[in-house]
Amino acid sequence: MPWMSPLARIRDALAGQRARDKDLRNLVSNLPYEGLDKWKQPNRHFRNNGIKTTKYSVLFFIPMNLFEQFHRLANLYFVGLAILNFVPVVQAFEPEVALIPICVILALTAIKDAWEDFRRYKSDKKLNRLPCFVYSSKEKCFVEKRWKDVRVGDFVKVESNDIVPADLLLLYTSDPNGVCHIETANLDGETNLKQRRAVPGVCITVSNTDILLIIHAVIRTGCLGFSHPDLVLKQHLVYLKGGCTVRNTGYAVGFVVYAGHETKAMLNNNGPRYKRSRLERRLNIDVIFCILLLFTMCIIGSLGHYLWLESMPSVPLYLVPQTDGHLDTPSLSSFYKFFSMIILLQVLIPISLYVSIELVKIGQIYFITNDLDLYDEETDATIQCKALNITEDLGQIQYIFSDKTGTLTENKMVFRRCSIMGREYPHKENECVRRALKMYIYKIKILMFTKSLPPNQQETEVILDQKLLRQIRGTEKIDAYQDFFLALAICNTVVVSMATAKRLRSNPLDTLSSLVRRAGSWTRLRAPITSETSANDLTTQGQSVNQTGGQTCSLHVPPQGTAPAVPAGKLCYEAESPDEAALVHTAKAYGFVLMSRTPDSVTVQLPSGAQLRFEVLDTLSFDSNRKRMSVLVRHPISKQCILYTKGADYAIMELLETPYGEKQQKAIASDTQQHLDCYAKEGLRTLCIAKKVLCDGEYESWAVQRQHALAAMDNREQLIMDSAVQIETNLCLLGATGVEDRLQDSVPDTVMTLREAGIQVWVLTGDKPETAVNIGYACRLLEQDDLVINMSCKSKVRSLISNSQRKFPLYPEVRRYSEDPRNVDTTPDISLVIDGRTLTMLMSPDLRDRFVDLARHCRSVLCCRVTPLQKSEVVKLIREKLKVMTLAVGDGANDVNMIQAADIGVGISGQEGMQAVMASDFAISRFKHLKKLLLVHGHWCYSRLANMIIYFFYKNAANVNLLFWYQFFCGFTANAMIDHWLMIFFNLLFTSVPPIMFGIMDKDVSAEMLLGLPELYRTGQGKGEYSFFTFWISMLDAFYQSLVAFFIPYFTYRGSDIDIYAFGTPLNTISLFTILLHLSIEIKAWTIVHVFIILGSVTLYFIVTLAYGVRYLNYSGYWTLQAQMVDPMFYLVCLISTVIALLPRYLFHVLKNSITCSPIVEARHLDTLEPSTRDQWIKEWRSFRGRVQDKTSDVSASPPSELKPTQSSSELNIRLGLVLFCHI
Question: Which positions in this protein are listed as binding Mg(2+) (predicted)?
Answer without folding.
Answer: 403, 405, 891, 895
